[in-house]
Amino acid sequence: MDASSLLAKEFLEMRCRLIDLAASFDRIDRAPGGEALRNDTRLHQLLHAARLLADGKPDRAQRLQILFSDPFNPSWRKELEI
Q1: pTM assigned to the model
Q2: Tens digits of per-residue pLDDT, 4-61?
Q3: For the residues of the chain, what is the DSSP string, one character each?
Q4: Cα(82)–Cα(79) distance, rounded to whole angstroms?
Q5: Domain residue spans in the chain?
Q6: Which pLDDT score is estimated for 24?
Q7: With 0-12 CB in 10 A as exposed, 13-18 as middle and 19+ as buried, what is 34?
Q8: What is the distance, to the nearest Å, from the Cα of residue 5 to the centroid of all Cα atoms in its chain?
């Protein structure tokens, strides 16, 4: 499938997900205490993720996964007693 056909196929679903995300941000902004979350790390991660989606660079999914992942811990087996 070429890029144009893929975009035609995916456009409405992608648009829907973006609108849903924007609505979630709006609900958080309007909710009581929303202003207090301006420095919340989770909100900053989400906003950073939105910028990654729009930056036009390749490997967006990989970069988003890394953004939301913990750094590798070489002693994870010991800490989890595995």
Answers
A1: 0.77
A2: 999 999 999 999 999 999 999 999 999 999 888 888 999 999 999 999 999 999 999 9
A3: --HHHHHHHHHHHHHHHHHHHHHHHHHHHHSTTGGGGGG-HHHHHHHHHHHHHHS--S-HHHHHHHHTSPPP-TTHHHHTT-
A4: 8
A5: 1-37, 40-82
A6: 96
A7: middle
A8: 25
